[in-house]
Amino acid sequence: MNVLRRHFAWRLCHLVLLVTLSVAVTGLSHAQKRYDPGASDTEIKIGNIVPYSGPASPWSTFGKVAEAYITKVNAEGGINGRKIKFISVDDGYNPAKTLEQARKLVEEEQVLAIWGVLGTTPNLAIQRYMNTKNVPQLFLASGATRFGDPKNFPWSMGWQPSYQQESRLYAQHILTTKPNAKIAVLMQNDDFGKDYYKGLVDGLGDKAQAMIVQHSTFELTDATVDSQMFAAKASGADVFFNIATPKFAAQAIRKAAEIGWKPTQYLVATSQSIAGTLKPAGLDNAAGVITVTWQREPSDPSAQDSKDVKDFFAFMKQYYPSGDSNDSVIVTGYCSIQTMVQVLKQAGDTLTRENLMKQAANLSTTVPMLYPGVEIKTSPDDFHPIKKVQMLRFNGTRYEAFGLSATRG
Amino acid sequence: MIAKSASSSSPLIVAAAARRSSDFSIRWWVVLLVIAAVLPFVLSGYRLFQCSMALVYAVAVLGINALTGYSGQISLGHSGFYAIGAYTAAVLMDKWGVPYWATIPAAAVVTLVSGYLFGMPARRLGGIYLALATFALGMATPQLLRYKHFEPLTGGAQGIVLAKPDPPAWLPLSQDQWLYFFVLLVAVLMFWLVQNMVNGRMGRAIMAIRDNPIAATSMGVDVAFYKAMSFGISAMLTGVAGALGAIVIELVTPDSLSLWLSITFIVGAVVGGINSISGALWGGLFIVFVPHAAERVSKAAPGVVYGILLILLMFVLPNGIASLGKLISRHWGAK
Asked: For the segment A313-356, what is each residue's pLDDT rounded down to a tens digit?
C-alpha cells in the first residue's frame, strides 16, 4: 500500500512539474514575441498618406524621402532582423479620401501603424477613426495644437512644435522689439491658419486688438493673394504676419516687394524652405524674413563640415537623387521617419500597437539633422516630441540664427 | 430599357415598350438584390464601405440620368445638390442631434425645393447656357460652405465630423453591415421611385418635352412646371445621395464636394448608360472601383490610366455599360 501510494505521489509530482514547466515555457515565449496585425518575424508594415496629387503635391517629398530612408534601413538589415514594408498612398489633400485611405491601410493592408500623415485637416479627418480602431497615428505632419492630447486621443501623436507655441514666440518678439507695431495678418482659412492665428492673438494678450490692424484670409483653392496684399499695405501696417503654405507664402512675399511694401515679415515655419518658398518669392524680396526652425538647413555654410550634414547629402545622393536637399520638407521627413525607426527599435520583439504607443511616449533622443540642442522627448503626459526652436532671419542668401532659442513654456 | 430616341413614337408606345423591357429586367433586379443582400456577410469592412459608396454614387448618378437622360437637360452643378444634401444631414445630426435616418427625408425635401427653385428660372436656358448656369452652382457651393460667416453652422474649411450610426440592438450586425443595408434600402427606394416616375404620366410628359417641346405644349403639357420639376426630382436624388454619403464617410468638408464631383457624376452617368436606370448602378460602381484600379496600375499617373480606360469604354460601349445587356439580349433574340 505504502509503495503504491508513494509511486502515485511520485507520478503526480512529475505531472505537476511537467505542466508547470510547459506553462512557464509557453508563457515565456509568449512574452518574448507578441505581434499585432502588420508585424511578424520577418516584416513590419507601416502605412503613410501624403498628397501625391493635387494642389498640395509639393509636399509629397515628405513621403518620398521616408520611402527612401526605409529602403536604406532595409538594405542595412532592417530593424531587429525585420524588414519594413512602407506603404505610402495618395489622398490629394482631400480629407474624405484621407479617411478612405486610412481605412484601406488599416483594414485591407493591415498595417501595424500609420506614420506621418500630412496636413492638419487630413489628420483631423482620421483622428477619430484611428483612436476607435486603436491604431497608432504617429508623428503626424502637422503642428496643430490639438494633436498633443493623450487624454482624449491616446493613439495620435504629432512631431513638430505646435503652431500656437511658434506664434506666441513671434508675438513675444514683436512686443519686445516693436511694441507699437501695426500688424497685418494673411491667414490661410483652415485649421492650420487658425491655430497659428490663435497663438499670435494669445501671445499679444490685451494688445492684440490694437496691434492687429488688418486680418485677411484666403482659401487653398484661390489663385492668388494679390488683393489681400494690397489691403495689407493700405492698412499702414509695418509688420506682416504670413500664415500660409509655401505656394501662397511665396506669392505674398513677392507681391509685397512688387507693390513697394517693406514691413518686418514673420513667416510660419511650415513655409521656411529656401527652395520651396524663398526662391520662388525672390531671394532679395525675402531678405529680413523671420522664422523659426528645429532642424538644420542643409545649405548653411557653417554646417557643411558637420558629419550629420555630410551623411544627409550622401543619403540623398544614393537613395533619393531626384530630391532637392534644400527642401525643408525633406529634412523634416528625414528626421521624422528616423524617430519612427527609433520607436520600432525600442519596441523590440513586442510589436503590438499598444507597445508602439508606449515607446513613442517614452522617447529621449535626438536625430542627426535636428538643430543642435533640439531633442525629441516624450512622456505619457507629453505628446509633443519637439519643443525647442531657434529663431532665424533670412539675409538674402541663407538663414542666420539670432536671439535665444525658446522652449515651450 | 427605354428606346433612346422616341421622337418618332408616341408617348403611349414608349410607355408600353418601357413596361415590356422593365418586365424583363425585373428578373435581373431581383438577382442583383439577392447578390447585394449577401455581400455584407462575405466582404470585409473596407470593401463593404466601398460597396456602400458605390450605392451612394449610383443614386447620385441616377439624379443625372433622370435629368439628362429623360428630360434632356444638362447639369454641371450636381455636386452642389450633393453638397446641400450632405450638409443638411451633417448639420442636422451635429447641431440638433437628429437621428441619421431622419436626415434622409429632410435632405430630400431641401434639395427637392432648391432644385425646383433653381430649375424654375433655368428652364428658359437650353443646352450650353443651362450647363453654364449649373456650372456656377457647382463652383459657388464649396465657397459658400467655406464662407466665414456660415462657419458656426458649416464648420468652415474643416467641415463637420459625424458619428457612425449603430445598428438597432436586436440585429446581430456590425456598424458597417447595418450602414450598408440602410444605404441599400434607400437606394432601392430611389430606384423604384424613378422607375415609377418614368413609367407614369410625369415620365411621359418629361420625355415628350425632351423630344419635341412644341408638340408637347400643343398637347397640353405644362413645359415650365415639368422642366422645373424634373430638375427638382433630379436634385432630390443627388441630394439624398449626398446625405447618405455624409453618413457613410462620417465627414463632410468643402474640399471633398468640389466641382470635380459634378464631372465624376457625369462620367459615371455616361459610362453606365445615361438613358437607363440600371446605368446608374454601373456608373456608381465605375466611380468607386476604377480609380482604385488605376492607382494600382500606376501610382505616378493614375489619371492617365483612368483616362485611357474611359476612352476605351466610350469606343466599345458608346451607350454605356447598360447597353451591353441590350446587345447581348438582341444577339440571343436574333438566334
From this structure: 999 999 999 998 888 889 999 999 999 999 999 999 999 999 99
Q: What number does CATH give the domain A163-293?
A: 3.40.50.2300
Q: Please check whether residue B45 touches A, CB under 8 A.
A: yes
> Residues in chain B with pLDDT < 50?
1-10, 12-13, 15-24
**Which residues of chain B are within 8 Å of residue A104 when distances are taken between CB atoms?**
46
Which residues, in sequence order, are bridge partners of residue A204? none
Does the interface predicted TM-score (ipTM) exceed 0.90? no
Alpha helices in A279-327 (DSSP H): 279-281, 307-319
Q: Are B158 and A191 in contact (CB under 8 A)?
A: yes
The rounded distance, in Å, linking the Cα atoms of B112 and B233 is 6
DSSP result, A147-193: G--TTT-TTEEE-SPPHHHHHHHHHHHHHHH-TT--EEEEEESSHHH
Residue-wise pLDDT tens digits, A218-259: 987 788 999 999 999 999 999 999 999 888 999 999 999 999
Shortest Cα–Cα distance, B249 to chain A (Å): 7
pLDDT of B213-241, one tens digit each?
Answer: 788 888 888 888 888 888 899 999 999 99
> Percent helix, strand, coil in chain B (nearest 5)?
80, 0, 20
- Residue A186 pairs with which residues in a beta bridge? A216, A242
Amino acid code (one letter) for A228: Q
Most B CBs within 10 A among A99, A106, A192, A217, hence the mutation to make, goes to: A99
Given a contact cutoff of 8 angstroms between Cβ atoms, the answer to whether A104 and B46 are in contact is: yes
Q: For B283-317, b where at least 16 C-beta lie within 10 A, e where not — what string?
A: bbbbbbebbeebbeeeeeebeebbeebbeebeeeb
- Give the integer Cα–Cα distance in Å for B297 and B276: 30
B44 with A107: Cβ contact below 8 A: yes
Task: Let me know the angle formed at the C-alpha of A187 by A182 and A191, rounded to the nearest 5 degrees.
Answer: 135
> How buried is residue B244: exposed, middle or buried, by Cβ count under 10 Å (0-12/13-18/19+)?
buried
Q: Looking at the domain A43-161+304-387, which fold is it?
A: Rossmann fold (3.40.50)
- The domain limits of chain A are 43-161+304-387, 163-293
Give the CA-trace dihedral at B12, B14, B16, B18, to 10 degrees: -150
Q: Which residues of A244-278 are buried (b: 16+ CB within 10 A; e: fewer)?
A: bbbbbbbbbbbbbbeeebebbbbbbbbbbbbbbbb
- Chain A CB contacts of B264 below 8 Å: none
Q: Tell me the C-alpha to C-alpha distance, in Å, between residue A188 and each of A28, A244, A246, A273, B280.
A: 54, 5, 11, 18, 39
The C-alpha atoms of residue B21 and residue B325 are separated, in whole angstroms, by: 11
Instruction: Return all residues near A374 (Cβ < 8 A) that are at least 6 apart.
Output: A294, A295, A366, A386, A388, A389, A390
| 3-state class (DSSP) for residue A392 | strand
The string of pLDDT tens digits covering residues A86-108 is 999 999 888 888 998 999 999 98
Contact B157 A108 (CB under 8 A): no
d(CA A220, CA B258): 13
The answer to whether residues A129 and A104 touch, using CB atoms and an 8 Å cutoff, is no
Q: A163-293: same fold as A43-161+304-387?
A: yes
Backbone angles phi, psi at A220, to 5 degrees: -60, -25
Q: How confident is the model over B145-195, as pLDDT tens digits?
A: 888 788 888 887 778 888 888 888 888 888 888 999 999 999 999 999 988
Report CA dihedral (A330, A336, A342, A343) to the nearest 10 degrees.
-150
